[in-house]
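Run log // design_07
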């Protein structure tokens, strides 16, 4: 949050993975989207870097996703 405040990036909410939560990123992000975003906000584009998460955004949720980095990690 310090980075956002330092660079004057405003936000109303900042959902973050709970401490100790080690489920796959694609599962966590899908759940977050379904519970807190879907039906409430228009999502024109999703940035992500992990192959499996990019596939989830594009194939499962039918959202345009910009893959910001390429590589298996």
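design_07 sequence
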């Amino acid at each position: 949050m310090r980075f956002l405040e330092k660079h004057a990036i405003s936000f109303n909410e900042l959902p973050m993975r709970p401490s100790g939560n080690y489920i796959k990123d694609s599962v966590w992000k899908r759940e977050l989207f379904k519970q807190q975003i879907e039906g409430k906000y228009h999502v024109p584009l999703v940035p992500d870097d992990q192959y499996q998460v990019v596939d989830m955004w594009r194939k499962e949720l039918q959202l345009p996703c910009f893959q910001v980095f390429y590589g298996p990690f």
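The mean pLDDT is 94.
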